[in-house]
Amino acid sequence: MIVKSKTGISNIILGLECTIAETEKDFEKIKEISEISKGIDLDINQVQEIDTAYFQMLLSLKAWTEHKKIPFSISGTSNPINEISKLYGVEL
Asked: Which of 21, 51, 69, 80 is the most exposed place for a label (fewest CB within 10 A)?
Protein backbone atom coordinates (compact mmCIF):
# COMPACT_ATOMS: atom_id res chain seq x y z
CA MET A 1 0.00 0.00 0.00
CA ILE A 2 1.20 3.45 -0.93
CA VAL A 3 -0.37 6.56 0.55
CA LYS A 4 -0.14 9.92 -1.17
CA SER A 5 -1.76 13.07 0.04
CA LYS A 6 -2.41 16.40 -1.60
CA THR A 7 -4.77 19.19 -0.59
CA GLY A 8 -6.06 17.06 2.26
CA ILE A 9 -7.24 14.20 0.03
CA SER A 10 -5.47 10.90 0.72
CA ASN A 11 -4.87 8.63 -2.24
CA ILE A 12 -4.47 5.04 -1.04
CA ILE A 13 -2.94 2.81 -3.71
CA LEU A 14 -3.42 -0.86 -2.91
CA GLY A 15 -0.69 -3.33 -3.86
CA LEU A 16 -0.84 -6.61 -5.75
CA GLU A 17 -1.62 -8.73 -2.69
CA CYS A 18 -4.12 -7.58 -0.09
CA THR A 19 -4.09 -10.43 2.39
CA ILE A 20 -4.17 -10.96 6.12
CA ALA A 21 -0.38 -10.65 6.18
CA GLU A 22 -0.68 -6.99 5.12
CA THR A 23 -3.85 -6.13 7.03
CA GLU A 24 -2.32 -5.00 10.32
CA LYS A 25 0.45 -2.93 8.73
CA ASP A 26 -1.94 -1.31 6.25
CA PHE A 27 -4.54 -0.70 8.95
CA GLU A 28 -1.99 1.33 10.91
CA LYS A 29 -1.25 3.46 7.81
CA ILE A 30 -4.97 4.01 7.19
CA LYS A 31 -5.56 4.87 10.84
CA GLU A 32 -2.87 7.55 10.74
CA ILE A 33 -4.09 9.25 7.58
CA SER A 34 -7.81 8.93 8.23
CA GLU A 35 -7.61 11.23 11.22
CA ILE A 36 -6.28 14.12 9.12
CA SER A 37 -7.84 13.45 5.71
CA LYS A 38 -10.54 15.58 4.16
CA GLY A 39 -11.27 12.76 1.70
CA ILE A 40 -10.08 9.32 0.69
CA ASP A 41 -9.57 7.91 -2.79
CA LEU A 42 -8.90 4.18 -2.94
CA ASP A 43 -6.99 3.04 -6.04
CA ILE A 44 -7.65 -0.68 -6.61
CA ASN A 45 -6.15 -1.07 -10.11
CA GLN A 46 -3.19 -3.24 -9.06
CA VAL A 47 -5.00 -5.71 -6.77
CA GLN A 48 -4.58 -9.28 -7.98
CA GLU A 49 -5.36 -11.06 -4.70
CA ILE A 50 -7.53 -10.11 -1.73
CA ASP A 51 -8.79 -12.13 1.20
CA THR A 52 -11.73 -11.61 3.52
CA ALA A 53 -9.67 -10.06 6.34
CA TYR A 54 -8.38 -7.30 4.08
CA PHE A 55 -11.77 -6.80 2.45
CA GLN A 56 -13.38 -6.38 5.87
CA MET A 57 -10.82 -3.68 6.66
CA LEU A 58 -11.78 -1.84 3.46
CA LEU A 59 -15.48 -2.15 4.34
CA SER A 60 -14.71 -0.70 7.76
CA LEU A 61 -12.86 2.20 6.15
CA LYS A 62 -15.83 2.92 3.90
CA ALA A 63 -18.26 2.75 6.84
CA TRP A 64 -16.02 5.04 8.91
CA THR A 65 -15.86 7.65 6.14
CA GLU A 66 -19.65 7.54 5.77
CA HIS A 67 -20.07 7.97 9.53
CA LYS A 68 -17.65 10.93 9.60
CA LYS A 69 -19.12 12.35 6.37
CA ILE A 70 -15.72 12.25 4.67
CA PRO A 71 -15.76 11.85 0.87
CA PHE A 72 -14.77 8.32 -0.21
CA SER A 73 -14.13 7.25 -3.79
CA ILE A 74 -12.65 4.30 -5.64
CA SER A 75 -10.42 4.55 -8.70
CA GLY A 76 -9.94 1.69 -11.12
CA THR A 77 -11.24 -1.83 -11.23
CA SER A 78 -10.11 -5.16 -9.88
CA ASN A 79 -11.60 -8.57 -10.68
CA PRO A 80 -10.61 -10.05 -7.29
CA ILE A 81 -12.33 -7.17 -5.47
CA ASN A 82 -15.40 -7.49 -7.71
CA GLU A 83 -15.57 -11.23 -6.96
CA ILE A 84 -15.28 -10.85 -3.19
CA SER A 85 -17.84 -8.04 -3.28
CA LYS A 86 -20.29 -10.41 -4.95
CA LEU A 87 -19.60 -13.07 -2.31
CA TYR A 88 -20.31 -10.58 0.46
CA GLY A 89 -23.30 -9.14 -1.36
CA VAL A 90 -21.98 -5.61 -0.88
CA GLU A 91 -20.50 -2.97 -3.08
CA LEU A 92 -17.25 -1.41 -1.99
From this structure: 69
Q: How far apart, in whole angstroms, are the C-alpha atoms of residue 42 and residue 7?
A: 16
- 3-class SS of residue 64: helix
pTM over the 0.70 mark = yes
According to the model, what pLDDT value does residue 91 have? Answer: 84
Question: What residues contact 65, with CB distance under 8 A and at least 6 apart?
Answer: 34, 40, 71, 72
Collapsed DSSP state (helix, strand, coil) of residue 72: strand
CB 50 within 8 A of CB 16: no
- How many angstroms separate the CA atoms of 16 and 50, rounded? 9
Q: What residue type is 41 in one-letter code?
A: D
Residues 6+ apart with CB under 8 A from 73: 39, 40, 41, 42
